[in-house]
Amino acid sequence: MRALITGITGFAGSHLADYLLSLKDIQVSGVTRWRSRTENIDHLKGQITLVECDLRDPFSVRDVLRKTRPERIYHLAAQSYVPMSWVAPSETLTTNLIGEVNIFEALRQEAMLETRVQLACSSEEYGLVLPGEVPIKETNPLRPLSPYGVSKVAQDFLGYQYHMSYNMFIVRTRGFNHTGPRRGEVFVTSNFAKQIAEIEKGRKEPVIHVGNLDAVRDFTDVRDTVRGYYLSLEKGVSGEVYNICTGKGYKVREVLDILLSFSKAKITTRQDEKRMRPSDVGLLVGDQTKFEKQTGWKPTFPFEKTMEDLLNYWRERV
Q1: Would you give the distance in Å from CA 240 to the centre of its chain?
Q2: Around 117, how many Cα atoms within 13 Å sit in the side-chain half-sphere?
Q3: Do 150 and 191 form a contact (C-beta atoms < 8 A)?
Q4: Of 1, 125, 213, 281, whose CB has the highest number of CB atoms within 10 Å?
Q5: 177-205: burial string, b at 16+ Cβ within 10 Å, e else
Q6: What does the alpha-carbon distance between residue 78 and residue 93 come to, in Å, rounded to a whole number?
Q7: Three-state SS across 36-88?
């Protein structure tokens, strides 16, 4: 089976490539840009095919599909850092929406409507969640609180529209927070882990800079998340949307406490106003029942194990 991963050099993309290759009999190709950093996939040299493409260029996208003729497309590429979406809202909307349109149009033009497409949407689409709406089902109202969240709502609905208009096989997955080794350092769990590793090595003062510690998030190990991406196209129903999550919420301060429990260093915290968002999503805990019933997927990694692996990842790199 021929699979194409957009965003293969990223966090989730690299783990998805690992997982697909572990299944055997899958040819994995990935989209990169000329400035893409490849350290996440350096260990896969010789096992995957990389094709350079700017997803915002429709001709480039069409050329990639002609070359790779994928039977499965996992569309993970995006501007995915929520705080950046306030700094660059236009860039976020353009990157996340136009790239997806170009993929859909290229599939139509190349008469590849049988290709199955997974859209990596986001729990940020839910945005403002009321206490009585937890755990969040797929039918919950979407009230995005960031330009990133808005861009993901647009991607989500565009996928539904192309499925309905052209009978394309498109499955939308709303992934809640996922983390683990290789997570970018700007994201909260990875940022904390890197700071702890730097403190242990004596490279910074024993103070962790933090933002909002009261936000509650549902964290899934990335290795479980990408297995869900695969199952969404093999056992999911075209046109449907599925939450991928654990159903358990952690306050950010609990996450920090778990990470600190793996270190012997004496560390204090200090709030950094630069880490606070203009409007923060306070509560995101999902209900994965629909996805579990349809695909048999269940999370397998304990959160403490995920945090330990993430901390050890940074210990090897700082």
Answers
A1: 18
A2: 33
A3: no
A4: 125
A5: bbbbbbbeeebbbbbbbbbbbbbbeeebe
A6: 10
A7: CCCCCCHHHCCCCEEEECCCCCHHHHHHHHHHHCCCEEEECCCCCCHHHHHHC
Topology of the domain covering 2-178+220-244: Rossmann fold (3.40.50)
Q: Cite the residue boundaries of each domain of the chain with CATH code 3.40.50.720.
A: 2-178+220-244
How far apart CA 217 and CA 11 sit, in angstroms, is: 19
Provide φ and ψ at 151, rounded to 5°.
-65, -35
Query: What pTM, to 2 d.p., does this model score?
Result: 0.95
**What type of residue sits at position 74?**
Y
pLDDT band at 278 (very low <50, low <70, confident <90, very high): low
Q: What whole-number distance in Å separates Cα of residue 31 and Cα of residue 53?
A: 6
What's the whole-number mean pLDDT along residues 198-218?
93
Partnered with residue 73 across adjacent β-strands are: 4, 117
Q: Are 200 and 308 in contact (CB under 8 A)?
A: no
Say if residue 315's pLDDT is above 90. yes
254 C-beta neighbours (distance < 10 Å), count: 14
Residue 61: CB atoms within 10 Å? 25
What is the longest distance spanned by two Cα atoms in the chain? 61
Q: Would you state the structure tokens that stand for residue 122, as one six-digit string?
A: 């986001």
Closest to 76 measured CA to CA, from 96, 90, 92? 96
216-217 and 283-284 strand pairing: parallel
One of 3.30.470.10, 3.40.640.10, 1.25.10.10, 3.90.25.10 is the CATH number of 183-217+248-315, namely 3.90.25.10
DSSP 33: -
Strand partners, 163: none
- Report H helices in the chain: 11-22, 58-68, 82-87, 89-93, 99-109, 147-166, 188-200, 222-235, 252-260, 289-295, 303-315
